[in-house]
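Q: What changes when phosphoric acid mono(formamide)ester is included in the input?
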Amino acid sequence: MKHLLKLADLSREEILSILNLADQLKYERKNGIDQTGYLKGKTLIMIFSKSSTRTRVSFDVGITELGGHPLFLSNSESQIGRGEPVQDTARVLSRMAHGIMIRTFAQQEVEDLARYGSIPVINGLTDYCHPCQVLADLMTIREYKGSFRGLKLCFVGDGNNMANSLMVGAVKMGMKFSIACPKGYEPDAKLIEWAKREGDFSMCDDPVEAARDADVLYTDVWASMGQEEEKKVREEAFRNITIDREVMKAAKPGAMLLHCLPVHRGEEVSEEIFEEHAEEIFDEAENRLHAQKAVLVKLMK
Ligand code: CP
Ligand code: NVA
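A: The predicted holo structure follows.
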């Protein structure tokens, strides 16, 4: 494994190995074991062309705890925002740092950074996928449920970057995957084909039907970063694509609810259902730190 560009590039064994290391790093941190030897003296460049709280903080804290150094580059304050080609940025950063984490719009930009540079590249979210988030999600599911085999993961919402990555993660780990989304807002067509071929995949526009017997429910915002102008149209299209008590009732008793955050209460999930599941959702947010530290160690050590 040289990069983390999308989950589809990783084998089931590679994913499990990251999750195992993440569990170990979480244990070490909770027990005050020094971790600064893992990546002593290594620099991680963090490029952000979109907003972030969790991804930025967890990578910054993560590389620091591992003995390395974070360097934040915003799109607007670097030459990237003024049009310096990604081929050149990749080659310059490769001569000065040891890894790059990037959050941007086009998946191609992330793939190009990896192609033209010579250091590991980590995808911190694109319009297409969000692999770091799904590694933390898988870690959380395993913490609560013990294993993945036979579980059903149901996503209620837009066929966006989260849906694309969750599908891949679920199928690779042997979970059934169902999605409820409005017509016209389905996940990536090629990924749907792949998931139908490789796993147990179903899609409809009724959250109650999709949630039937699910072990894990998942949702995300109706309008992602970069889709602000579609907000009104999407509010109309997604009105019924929401997790409320009725949807939770269709799932298995004791089903989990996960959300990558930030949440829009009263849109994709009701306030009361969100708060009832806050413990697992904030464990999930914390696990971003542990899962990404595992990725950093795997790629940069
Ligand atoms: N879930 C997630 O990636 O959060 P941020 O946008 O705050 O990084
Ligand atoms: N789908 C959301 C995820 C945020 C973590 C977005 O892209 O804005």
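Observations recorded in class: The chain has a mean pLDDT of 98.
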